[in-house]
Design a protein that fits this description.
The protein is α+β, with helices and mostly antiparallel strands. It is built from four helices and seven strands, in the order E-H-H-E-E-E-H-E-H-E-E.
Length: 151
Amino acid sequence: MRIVVDDLSGPRIAAFLEEHVRQMREISPPESKHALDLDGLRRPEVTLWSVHDGDELVGCGALKRLDPGHVELKSMRTAAARKRGGVASLLLEHILAEARRAGFSRISLETGSAAFFLPARRLYAKFGFAECEPFADYRPDPLSTFMTRTL
């Protein structure tokens, strides 16, 4: 598998991310949906990586810079046919290494609290994330779980 910084110009990544946003809208009410759309991911403070297995797009994940020492993990997604196949772990290892290399000391994330998001919460806990209070512009939300770890 190959992980690359994605310039978000291709139709495959656009469709992949549109599916992500659509699914999050189906699962979460508007006030609890925090997934970035394509325009949000194109902002200068965001870097998105895509994961490819040959010509197949199998996953993506992003970092959003919050301040000089703190970054947020965004838009982690694995293709449905590749779930539980190691894509997310490979990508998360890569993103954590990139965050360290860039000099960040903390990485945080928001994910859902519903059962649908349990595999994601388990993955993040496996990589050393622990639940925390809301960070950045987030507010307490019973449908959100906030997690963080030092780098």
